Amino acid sequence: MTQLDATAAGAAGAAGTAGAAARAARRADVCALACAEAFRGAGEILASAFGTAPALGARLARRTFAPDLLLSDGEAMLLADPPPLGAVPAGAVVEGWLPFRSVFDVVASGRRHVIMIPSQLDAYGNMNISAIGPHGHPTAQLIGTRGAPGNTVNHRTSYWVPRHGPRVFVERVDVVCGVGYDRAEAAGPAARRFHGLGRVVTDLASLDFAGPDHRLRLVSVHPGVTVDEVLAATGFPLALPDGGPGAVPTTPVPAPAELDLLDAFDPKGLRFREVQA
Questions:
Q1: What pTM was estimated for this model as a whole?
Q2: Domains identified in the chain and CATH numbers
């Protein structure tokens, strides 16, 4: 039994001893599970997850339905068992070594799925993390393009938005960092050959790019959220499933065993600070 198994088993045992009912899933738990689903069927690839919910989602996926996912310790070691957030337990089993310089080889190979946090995202998946405002006179400088261009034209890229609102979901991004479907198509075969955007998970909903012409489509709304709320919080029209707003399902809620794992992965409850609903 690993340290994580012992923690989860101990928590479950304590709850059973007290005779208390399993706790209800909160919005942050739902978001973590939705992020985990982004990795379903991925196979043996490197999972790079930015943000608390994506980091938990990658761990949850690895421990449940995606055992071949590769997860690092945040530096250079690939671990056999996903550690809790912010800590690598003593005696953790290292199953591989991936120094930073080798990450670029993985990116070019396509054997990676990254979940990034966009500052702006448009209907076709063009993403901005560089600057806000007119190109000549931006009003805010952000972190720069980073690896977004290479990520989006080489391997699967998904997005996590902890605050779903019209300042993030915009008609036109101020700087194109990550490449969307329309620009990949316009750029030609070299850009679109391996281009593929996955899920967009927010604190309100789960979305994908399966709408007409690869436009952003509403897949599900989280428990307690309405379709109208999501549409009002988005700065452009969203594609909807056949059947319209009434056909949009509710995002699945983690099962008790999944909640136990999330609690063990995140003993400090950091996800509840990221998503406070």
A1: 0.90
A2: 3-274 (3.40.1080.10)
